[in-house]
Amino acid sequence: MDTKYIRNFSIVAHIDHGKSTLADRMLELTGTITAREAKEQLLDDMDIERERGITIKASAVTMHYEYEGHTYMLNLIDTPGHVDFHYEVSRALAACEGALLVVDASQGVEAQTVANAYLAVETGVEIMGVINKVDLPAAQPDVVAEEIEHVLGIRKNECFAISAKTGKGVRELLDAICELLPAPADRSDEPARALVFDSHSDPYRGVICYVRVFSGKLRVRQRMRLMHTGRSYLVTELGKFRPAMTPVEELGTGEVGYIVANIRDLADVHVGDTVTDDANPAQDPLKSYQPPMQMVFSDFYPGDNTEYSKLRAAFDKLALNDASFSFVPQNSPALGFGFRCGFLGLLHMEIIQERLERENDIDIVQTAPTVSYEVVMSDGQVRRIGSPSELPDRTHIEELREPFVRLEIITSTESIGGIMKLAEARRCKLLKTDYLNPTRVMMEYRAPLAEIVYDFYDQIKGISRGYATMDYELTDFEATNLVKIDILVNGQPVDALSIIVHRDNAEQRGRKLILKLRKAIPRHQFEIPLQVAIGGKIIARETVKAYRKDVTAKLYGGDVTRKMKVLKRQKEGKRRMKSIGSVQIPQKAFMSILDTS
Length: 597
Ligand code: GTP
Hints:
Elements: E1 6-13, H1 19-29, H2 35-39, H3 47-52, E2 60-67, E3 70-77, H4 86-93, E4 98-104, H5 111-123, E5 126-132, H6 141-152, E6 160-161, H7 170-180, E7 193-202, E8 206-215, E9 218-219, E10 223-226, E11 232-234, E12 237-241, E13 245-248, E14 250-251, E15 256-260, E16 274-277, E17 296-302, H8 308-320, E18 326-332, E19 336-343, H9 346-360, E20 364-366, E21 370-371, E22 373-377, E23 382-385, E24 397-412, H10 416-425, E25 429-437, E26 440-448, H11 449-452, H12 456-463, E27 469-479, E28 482-489, E29 492-493, E30 499-502, H13 503-520, E31 528-534, E32 537-544, H14 560-574, E33 577-580, E34 583-586, H15 587-591
Parallel strand pairs: 1-3, 1-4, 4-5, 5-6
Antiparallel strand pairs: 2-3, 7-8, 7-16, 8-15, 9-14, 10-11, 10-16, 12-13, 12-15, 17-19, 17-20, 17-21, 18-19, 22-23, 22-24, 24-26, 24-27, 25-26, 28-29, 28-30, 28-31, 31-32, 33-34
Guanosine-5'-triphosphate binds next to helix 1.
């Protein structure tokens, strides 16, 4: 197809501003799907995704649309909206020439709107402002247009006002996509180069690569080469998502589709890699993007009722379709054999954890998540660690650095004071305050990731009565005054309970932590001392008193079924426990580290 009539674009938006609804409406108006199918929100195809209402994996769909007597091919590449998945937004944008920035007319510009707009600007795509949900009684399209102009620099009179729900303005938007977004550059005479912007593994067909062709063309039965690994494969099928996978004979310059080529292992396909023709290869690969940085780490151990090998098999299965999640075997002196896992962020971690339990019926004990640190050793070497237990001996450490982010918070003017107080307590430095309008403000901070990654969002939501939104992006690692706190349970150090904190808060955090642990660890038949140590020195102690809880004693032995029920309940309560020496520690105790209140 003539590249003149191709448009490749993404929709980016803050969560719930209507990205999926708009995608569905476009699919319907272009006849790609029927109205009934649209109801089922086609672009989100994972269960958890639907339940949580967030888009995780980028998917792509090809539509055909008539405009001014020509048939246009519109390729829509879907993107996730959550901060954990910035990386996936960038890689979807890298396959496009344009982006629709959707803003809810009743909510206005939110933190993720700004973050997504920045990503779009960095990628160099053409941005169109779209104000959605104009059908709502609370819609204020003019106020929102002002905000878009003020914060994002998109002219307010160039924004499109639509309702993705009723379809109002969507046809005009499709016209504008054909009229205003740039066509792909025509490089059909050059050797084939296609960007792999996503991939997934199919149990029957091997790895399916999602590609955007930038030059030349790909043909079925040709040998293709992945430039990163240099390996070549026979292309057995090419196709497009309409939205079902539909085979085609070739994919030309500017087109978006998929490749099936008998690739067995997902690890062989690097997202961001360039596909070329093995017989007539391109000289240079396309510009790639940075691999995703794992920001949050946590250890997963099989609970007392689960085998290590079962956990390993479950991880292997999960990793097949999620290249940004990693796991390595870990042996903890206190908890035994398990895995150290790396995630893009906290939400990513929760999704993996949920899928593990739901799809595999296993029982895991997970340690509190931690960020990664940079350790400068006395010999000058720099090491990244993802767990306080990996911290080398103090005498070998020259400097300990923690990750810092640029944090944006958008909130109502009434909650500024409360948020500033919280941010200050979390060691955040205010860089800029910008009034979007008389009632809404955007604050920009430099913040230590460790202080904002866990409960900070919930806290600012509370302070602002649900109003505030935030987003952040890693900027650098900086040396700060950090110390490691160790916890001893019954005289034994439990590495999985260690934390790294700023020295100014260390004593207070340590004391609070053992208070929480005292409540979380059930009484045993003996007394359990809990101690906090900083640099080998014990600074605080609590005790879990001895107690024998004979739950069936008061049932007199008469009613057997009742007794069985109580015992069963007690057994269930024991799940997700981990024995350390003779002490049983429940899952929630490991998480008490996170509770800083
Ligand atoms: P994520 O996938 O979580 O990023 O959300 P999203 O941006 O895809 O939002 P989605 O399309 O799921 O819409 C969120 C909610 O807003 C849904 O309940 C939609 O029905 C509703 N919605 C979307 N567009 C409109 C609209 O134009 N008008 C009204 N009234 N509601 C809308």
